[in-house]
């Protein structure tokens, strides 16, 4: 079956909070990554400078060691070696100091003899071969990367003759005191230019920031795309669910639905419509509705008021089995969101049950009015009846010796008693039924109720069959009222079977509702179909001696138990009364 679908354009607008949230999450992450990357590059640059300084120190020591091996090496040669070494690219200065911080050699000879590095623990530094470094920052001057360690051209110890000769030639006579100024406690400093490192750091910073910005944009774009993709999938799933729900709803709502296109051809229908009009099939789609639907139904789409909104009407319409069913029909135009006209929608509902309920309500209101009237009349009749019976009794005693007058008085008394019984029944019918729920063994109650009609059953040669359908626990019912219901139904059944027959009483749980079901079936004369809707009305009877109150009272008692009573009967074949009863609340007593 075709269905009408409305396709909505997928919205890709991303809420601002998604962008803000993504930025809040990604910005610190990429900032940390950027800082870590810059720090890693800086560490690599520092390590490169440290290794370069260490290599220069080893080179200078090797040159010094080679010079000391020669006979003509002097302090002048050492100074020259130091100066030439310092002329290399990126070397700012090169100096050798003793443990007291006195400069022994410097590429700038004017600084020889002056203190340097005295703020460091030079003695500790001169005792190991570990490389040390520091960055010297002075206002207005370029930063200097300084590498320093112990200065030992001849290994771990200086050879005393060579050292003394060297330092005498350097013009430092106070160094000739070997014990006081051990020349093995020397430290060499190399100052390296940091401009290349700083420039590389700035370049790394720019690159890291650019990369971080690009990654941030990529991350934001990825999150936005994920959000859009997720929303798209959610929208598709939601649309699928809505479509499945709407299709299921349309198929299973207890209202007939027919959709007609703008060419007045059948476009869609649901199962309820198909159940009413058998001509609706898959092959009917696209055919003119005038050829498929009853005139009473399809004429509504041509109603002049349909252009102004919804047309609602109650019609009697023929269905597939030839029956005429009352329908409440609503017809309206079908437009999409752009207000484009696509056709018509017909909704129709079976009013059979509603009309039945209306009749039942009208009957209940009528019975209530009759009951109130009957109660008033009964009270008014009872008082004169008591007076008439009193006078009749008086005349019976007075004319004891006159048989004809006495017999007349007795007839008067019998008729007054009969009228009094009718008035009592009328009052019982008019009085609201009061029921009290107490535990009742239904099986025992039914067997006991059958004993009350044993004599009539034997006289009419009627077979009684009791058929328990289920084992029942004690139920909260009004046993007296239930007995009254059963006795009324039994007596009606016996009256309908003058020549014998069968009386079948079945009881058990209701198939799907919480409660019990009792059926009383006879094989008597049956009830005419036209009389069946009226049998529960007071004073409706076809029996010569009946009052028409019994079944009305039965109906009231059943309703007091929140139950239902229905009748199935066929003339000359018998009648079945079926009663459904709900359990009553447990009485406080």
Question: How would you characterize the overall build of this protein?
Answer:
- The chain has 589 residues and is of the alpha+beta class.
- Helix content is 46%, strand content 20%.
- It is built from 13 helices and 17 strands.
- The chain has a five-stranded antiparallel beta sheet with strand order 2-1-5-4-3. A five-stranded antiparallel beta sheet has the order 7-6-10-9-8. The chain has a five-stranded mixed beta sheet with strand order 12-14-15-17-16, covered by helices on one side.
- Helix 1 runs antiparallel to helix 2, helix 1 packs antiparallel against helix 5 and helix 8 runs antiparallel to helix 9.
- The N terminus is likely disordered.
Summarize the structure.
The chain has 589 residues and is of the alpha+beta class. Helix content is 46%, strand content 20%. The protein has 4 domains: 59-197, Beta-Lactamase; 253-350, Beta-Lactamase (2-Layer Sandwich), CATH 3.30.450.20; 359-430; 438-581, Histidine kinase-like ATPase, C-terminal domain (Heat Shock Protein 90, 2-Layer Sandwich).
Question: In terms of topology, how is this protein built?
Answer:
Blueprint: H1 16-69, H2 75-86, E1 91-98, E2 103-106, H3 122-126, E3 132-136, E4 144-150, H4 160-169, E5 186-193, H5 195-252, E6 256-261, E7 266-269, H6 271-276, H7 295-298, E8 311-318, E9 324-335, E10 341-350, H8 352-398, H9 403-430, E11 438-440, H10 442-451, H11 454-460, E12 462-468, E13 475-477, H12 479-495, E14 501-509, E15 516-522, H13 550-560, E16 564-570, E17 574-581
Parallel strand pairs: 12-14
Antiparallel strand pairs: 1-2, 1-5, 3-4, 4-5, 6-7, 6-10, 8-9, 9-10, 11-13, 14-15, 15-17, 16-17
Helix pairs in contact: 1-2, 1-5, 8-9, 10-12, 12-13
